[in-house]
């Protein structure tokens, strides 16, 4: 049950309208999360700027896999539907890879290290061990890449928390539970 207003086009604040219109044009429809988030031009535009910047970080398969792992840990069903959809249609990940990412892993060793590290960042609230850091570096990630992973975790957690608080109606295909993790 949605706990905030999902704005109609004529209700969108002027300062949110260009950003929301760009997403709508790019995606082909206005997701409920964005129509709700647009109520705060400050928060919405800050998130959109971060999303735009981080779309250049790492590769799309790794970004989507991190989004799935973070959303699973944070228990965000809305984001799991979104990331499962984008992982399938944009990153071209097969269903078993999507489920594996939700559990904090990947079949590709380098991506696996990034996803495992992202999951540990969420689970430990950033209090990772030296061994955790060495594992992701050992897989070939630079400190700049590790910073990008942490930034992705923060960005995905922001939308996870937003959606967990306001619970917008899901407008992407439902996903099955990941099972025991």
Feature tags:
181 residues; mainly alpha; AhpD-like; 2 domains; globular
Write the layout of secondary structure elements.
Layout: H1 17-27, H2 32-37, H3 41-54, H4 60-73, H5 77-89, H6 95-102, H7 109-123, H8 130-138, H9 143-166
Helix pairs in contact: 3-9, 4-5, 4-6, 4-7, 4-9, 7-8, 7-9
Please give a quick description of this structure.
It contains 9 helices and no strands.
Low-confidence stretches: none
Percentage beta strand: under 5%
* CATH homologous group name of the largest domain: AhpD-like
Q: Tell me the name of the CATH class of the largest domain.
A: Mainly Alpha
Describe the structure in your own words.
The chain is mainly α and 181 residues long. The chain is built from nine helices and no strands. α3 runs antiparallel to α9 (143-166). The longest helix is centred in the C-terminal third of the chain and has 24 residues, at 143-166. The protein is globular, with a radius of gyration of 16 Å. The two termini are 26 Å apart. Residues 44-119 form the Carboxymuconolactone decarboxylase-like domain. This is Alkylhydroperoxidase.
